Amino acid sequence: MTPPTIIFIHGAWHDTSNFSPVIGILEPLGYPCITIAMPSTGGTIPTTDLTNDIAAIRHVVLKEVDAGKEVIVCSHSWGGIPTTNALDGLSISERSESGKVGGVVKIAFLCAFVVPVGTSLQDATGGMSYDGIAEDGFIPATHFGQKFYHDLDDAMASDLESKLKLQSVASFQTKATSAAHLVIPSIYLICEDDQIIPMFLQELMIADARKAGGIMEEERVFCGHSPFFKNPEFTASFLRRAAGENV
């Protein structure tokens, strides 16, 4: 088989380097890998909604599928929300109906938020308030850093915490307007020791997606919120299975 292109979407406060351990495994196996920096993460001027994040994803995905390539979009954490808003009309089945070659064959969620239309990340977390922690339109990672990496060794966790960026508040408050996971088959990696998105919430989002008609497979791994750091080999194998390999 010709391996699909895997496009990686990072989560809040993070950046594209998160996926380097996994990409280092996949690329020698023939998988073209692309990372996208989300505009709502970092910078000095906060975004006001998800428009720029959605556009960034769609631009890269369109370039690949218009070149006739099959694509898997792999999204971590908050990145699941702009992803499912960015892929309207880009599934391989929809494009085939229009006589086009190439398309998105699967969405792979890594302990990610998967929400219905009309729901924001803030809604999905029970209406969590950012009063008192938001500064100038951004949320600093200082309140969350330890929970990202609680299962990594102290030196690695400390180094990773130091690299976390600011996140625009609006990216958590903007409601989803599309739900591509109800059209494009998907697979979800449940991280059972996640202290950011508890396992029960991951399971609930999967159940809700299935109830709404989505085709969503699932796999499980006992690790925290960063499977690409804790177990890059398993994460790479998960993506290979998403691509149809028997590994």
UniProtKB/TrEMBL annotation:
It comes from the Eukaryota. This is AB hydrolase-1 domain-containing protein. It comes from Sclerotinia borealis (strain F-4128). Residues 6-236 form the AB hydrolase-1 domain. It holds the Pfam family Abhydrolase_6. InterPro entries: AB_hydrolase_1 (IPR000073), AB_hydrolase_fold (IPR029058), Sec-Metab_Biosynth_Hydrolase (IPR052897).
